[in-house]
Amino acid sequence: MKKRIFALLTVLVLSISILTGCKDSAPVSDSADKAAATSAPEIPAKKTSYGANTQAIVDRGVLRVGVKNAVIGFGFQDTLTGEYSGLEISIAKKIADTLGVDIEFTAVTAATRTELLDSGDIDCVLATFTITEERKNNWDFSTPYYTDYVSVLVETASGITSLAGLKDKTVGVSSGSTSAKALTKAMIEAGVIDGAAFDEASFDAATWTTGVSFKQYDDYPAISTALSAGEVDAFCVDKSILAIYNTGTRGYIDDKFSPQDYGVATKKGSDFSAFVESLVTGWLSDGTIGGFISENGLD
Ligand code: GLU
């Protein structure tokens, strides 16, 4: 809102100074004054080239973005200052700056980000959200701005160091994530488990029990606690997310698998999707996103 008022004031001040002439310039005659007045540009009408959904964000004066708050380098909130930082925060702020609006962050989980987007509580999601064919049926995704991989965190004392070590174990995953399917597929491809019953489209982490089984949690701290308590043998998700939980007694297995392309998600069919896509592709080609990736130590 403040930015809009400031922008309007700037246009007004500029227009007034054009109409009245600069104080330091030589005095102008009446007729010159009139000529200047008639040829002076009018205050531009409100920009109308945005689609209706994008214009609604401009009119509101705030871009509302769903982000992670505990993924270092992507979306991380300083608990003391409340400030957010990371690659996804920088991209979100740049979208808001381009629109000339303020920004409001909402911390989301893998399970809540789509509900909040569907309900209209947020305009877009930049939250380590992997682009999948299945998800594309329900939401629009930009071109990927980063690619991560899935990995598995274990207590070192467990002796588990590879996919083979996870045979017949229980793995903690987040509800609404790609992790369980990715791990099952990787174990099948590595020849650790039998894939006869595996069907990509109908896979359900809650019912899969062939060679590995899963416990689903609402958030990542809960999985970390479960790992310490021995409730699960391993914690599986994207490596970027696991980083903060890799404390002294833990380590990753040797394998990383299933590339995870992160995209900006928006409401399906919204004109805001096309607007975001043009920004992301532009910032990928002009090095802006590459710069954010380096700034956050992600390269
Ligand atoms: N990136 C994965 C997904 O979108 C892991 C879950 C998460 O982002 O929290 O499913």
Describe the protein:
The chain is an alpha/beta fold and 299 residues long. It has two domains: 53-145 and 263-295, D-Maltodextrin-Binding Protein, domain 2 (3-Layer(aba) Sandwich); 149-259, D-Maltodextrin-Binding Protein, domain 2 (3-Layer(aba) Sandwich), CATH 3.40.190. Helices cover 37% and strands 21% of the residues. It is built from eleven helices and 14 strands. The protein has helices at 2-20, 30-39, 52-60, 87-99, 113-119, 133-136, 179-189, 220-229, 239-242, 271-285, 288-295, and strands at 62-67, 70-71, 75-77, 84-85, 102-107, 124-126, 139-141, 146-155, 169-174, 212-217, 234-238, 250-252, 257-262, 265-267. α7 links the parallel β9 (169-174) and β10. The site of glutamic acid (GLU) has 12 residues, from β11.
In a few lines, what is going on in this structure?
The strands form three sheets. Strands 8, 9, 10, 11, 12 and 13 form a six-stranded mixed beta sheet that branches. The chain has a five-stranded mixed beta sheet with strand order 5-1-6-14-7, sandwiched between helices. It has a three-stranded antiparallel beta sheet with strand order 2-3-4.
